[in-house]
Amino acid sequence: MPSQYIMVTPGSEVFEHYDQKRDCYEQLTNFMNLPTHGKICALYGLRRTGKTVMMEQCIAELPEEEKQKSAYLLCLNGCDMLEVRRVMEPLYAKGTRNFFIDEITAVTDFQKYGNVLSDYFSAKGAKVIIAGTDSLGIMLAEADILYDRIQMIHTSHVPYAEFSRVLGGKTLDDYIEYGGTLTKEPYKTLQSSSEYLNTAIVGNILHSLEKSEDARRYGAALTELYDHDELLSVLNKMINKFSYFVTVQAVNKYFKSAPLYSTIHNIREPSYISKINVEEANQRTKDILGIKNQEEMDTSLSKQHIAELKDYLQGLDLFIKIPSYTSLKKGERVQDLEIFLQPGMLYAHATALMQSLADNSMWMDSCGIDDRNAFLFRADRFVKGILLENIILAETYRSFSQNNPKRYYVSQLSTTLKENNQHVEADMILVDIQKNESYLFEVKYSNQIVEEQTKHLRNEHFTQYVDENFGKVTGRFVLYTGESNCMNEIPYLNAEKYLNRLSQFSKPPYPKLEKLFSPEKVVQTKQPKKSSHKKPLL
Predict the structure, then answer these.
(1) pLDDT in tens, 203-220
(2) pLDDT of residue 454
(3) pLDDT category, 408, cuts 50, 70, 90?
(4) pTM to 2 decimal places
C-alpha cells in the first residue's frame, strides 16, 4: 500500500535539470563511489542552495544498472521514522541499494530515531543520502543520534566564483545585491528577504529545536525569544548590524540603523546630513524591519541569547568569526571580526532604508532633489563598498586561514602608530606565516584610481609596523572594480578576477600565492589623480 506521507520516484524516472554543479558536488560523487563503512551522507544547508538538484544530478549520472537500483523519496509533514522504514524495507528487498531521501527533517522523530538509516540500511550495504530544509535538525542529529555515522556536505555558503559560474556569468554587482542563494528571488525585495529570513532561518532554528528531545539544552534562550514572538526582531537587529558592529550593547540597549549610521558618518558632505531627519529615519527602519526596542520586548536580552543565536547562525554557515590581532608575533589579540555571509540579505535591508530616505518628509524643506539624489547615490555605493570588503575578507579567510590556520593569517588591521599617534589601517592583511611574508590590501567599490586610496599602504611607518609584528611586507594591492593596472607603485587588481582566482586556493593542489596577484590583463593608464579632499569619495 503506497504511503500517504512519502512520495517514491524510481531512479530511472529522475532527470537532471541543471548542467552546472556545485563545488561540493564532488563530495557526493565520492560518497557514491567509495566504501561508506555504514555511514549515511547528508546534504544540509539553507533553502535554494541546490540540495535537491544535487540529488537529481547524482541519480542522473549513475550507470544505468545503478540507476535501476535507486529511489528518490520525498518525505511529507506527518511522516515518522517508522513510516520511512516501512517504505524502504520492501524497496530494499526488491534490490534498491541507493536511497535519496529528501526533506528528511519533515520526519517528526528523525532526531530521535534517524540512526535506523545508518545502523540498519547502510550497515547492510545501502547508500543513503538525506537532505532537509531544517538543516539545523540534521546538525543536531549529527551531534547526537548519528554521531560518527554521517558524512556532512554543507551547501549554505555560495562564494562569488561559484555563484557566477552556476548561474551563468553573474557579475560582482549581482552577488552584492542578491548573493547568498542560487537565485536572486529571496533577496529581490525586503519583503521577499524577510520571508526567506522567517522561513529558511528562523523557521529552520525553531522547527529543529521543537523536534529535539532536549530543546532547552540546545537552545533555552532562543526558545524563550520565540515564545515571546521576539526572535525575528532580534535576528533583524543583528543582520542590520552585522557589517558594522555586532555587540550585545548595540542589540540590547539601543537601536541605530547601521547603514544610515555608517553612511552619514562617512560621507563627506555635512550639508546632506543636516537635511535628514535622522530620528524619523531610524523609526521608519525599525517599523520596516519589524524591530522592537528593548523596552518594547517582554524578554530581557542577555549575553546568553546573543551567544546562542550566533552559535546557531555560525553552524548554519550564515556568518563567520575571524580572529584579529594587533601583533601576530606577540600574540596581541583584539575582538574577533564577525561577518554575515548573505550579502543579498544585508543589501535588501539597506535598500529598504534607502527607499525610506527617498520620502519627501525625511528631508528639510530647503533640500533640493539634486542634493537628495546625490546623497542616496553615495549611500548606495557606500553600502556596496562595505559589502565588497566583507565578501573579499570572508572568502580570502575561508580559502587560506580556515583551510590552513597554521600557515596563513587573514584579517583586517587597524592600529595607532606609536611614532606619531597616527591611526592607520588596511582593509585586509594576508600573512604567510611559514615564509614570514605579509600582503596588505585596500578594497574600493570604485573603477577609478585615486592616489589617496593608497595613503595607508604607502605609509612607511605602517609598513615597518607590519614587518615587525606580522611579517615582511611583500606586496601591497588595491582591489577595485576597474581593470587591473600594475603601472604604478601599488598595483590595482580587478576584484572579480581576484575572487575567481581565489576559488583555486580552496582545495589542493594549491597554486603558488603569486598567481593570485598576477593580473590577467594590464591596462595602460595615466598616473592616479591627486585628490584635494581629505577623504576619498569612494
Answers:
(1) 888 778 777 765 555 567
(2) 94
(3) very high
(4) 0.85
Number of neighbours of residue 349 by Cβ within 10 angstroms: 28
CATH class of 6-155: alpha beta
Query: Among 60-69, 217-226, 455-464, which is the least confidently predicted range?
Result: 217-226
Look up cell 563627506; give the residue: 268
Beta strand 472-480 with 492-494: parallel, antiparallel or unpaired?
A: parallel
Q: What's the mean per-residue pLDDT of the chain? A: 83
Q: Are 62 and 98 spatial neighbours (Cβ–Cβ below 8 Å)?
A: yes
Most confident of 188-192, 236-240, 383-387: 383-387
- State residue 526's pLDDT score: 42
Percentage helix, strand, coil, to 5, in the chain? Answer: 45, 20, 35
C-alpha cell recorded at residue 199:
522561513
For residue 90, count CB atoms less than 10 angstroms from its CB and return exposed for 0-12, middle for 13-18, buried for 19 or more. Answer: exposed
Cα–Cα distance measured from residue 210 to residue 236, given in angstroms and rounded to the nearest whole number: 22
Q: Name the least confident of 3-17, 130-144, 250-264.
A: 250-264
CA dist., res. 312 & res. 205, Å (int): 8
- Give residue limits of the domains in the chain: 6-155, 162-385, 400-517
Using a 10 angstrom Cβ sphere, with 0-12 exposed, 13-18 middle and 19 or more buried, the burial of residue 119 is middle
- Sequence-distant contacts of 58-61: CB under 8 A, at least 24 apart: 58/25, 58/28, 58/29, 58/32, 58/100, 58/129, 59/11, 59/14, 59/16, 59/98, 59/100, 60/14, 60/15, 60/16, 61/16, 61/29
Integer Cα distance of 293 and 233 in angstroms: 9
Looking at residue 82, its amino acid is: L
At position 382, the amino acid (one-letter code) is F
Residues written for the chain: 538
C-alpha cell at 340: 554575515
CA distance 167 to 122: 35
CATH among 1.20.120, 3.40.1130, 3.40.1350, 2.60.40 for 400-517: 3.40.1350
Give which of 431, 457, 428 is closest to 339, Cα–Cα. Answer: 428
Distance, C-alpha 407 to centroid of its chain:
24
